[in-house]
Amino acid sequence: MATPEFLAKKGRTRSDYGYHQVHQTRWFDNDMYAHLNNTVYTALFDTIANSYLIEHCGMNPFSVNNPTPKSADGQASNLSVGTDQIGLIVSTHCDFFASVAFPDTLEVGLRVAKLGSSSVTWEIGVFRKGEENVKMVGTYTHVFVLRETMRVGKGGMESRVRQGLEKLLSPPEAKL
Description:
176 residues, alpha+beta, 5-stranded antiparallel beta sheet, Thioestr_dom, 4-hydroxybenzoyl-CoA_TE
């Protein structure tokens, strides 16, 4: 018997997600069963969550090993210096409802399911372009730690990161 949480995820629509990206599947994304390999879903999680962190939370993953980011032609990047924190993945989960495969174009949605003092649990919905039924819903938890110590800081996550994440919080009472 399916749980209420599972049924709620299965009923998700694009409008349940506040941030969206389009991804074109590639031939080598398929596995031997002719559907998207599980590792591709993880890459989609990483791509959409980190895109949001860069665009809306002021994070710059490139500043970890390169404090002054450069573009491909050697010029200074338009990315900010970044934060004193990085997000470490501590948990992932997927619920699959239907297969997708190359040559599908995917519409991926992102929302914040839970927001703690130093962590965020993302929810990602994967849709086939032009179809209303969600194909997969995944969750992905980041814990924000100080770059230098790899431990949670006393104040939790930085305020500009929290402010960006709060914009995607759904439902609003999911703040811990």
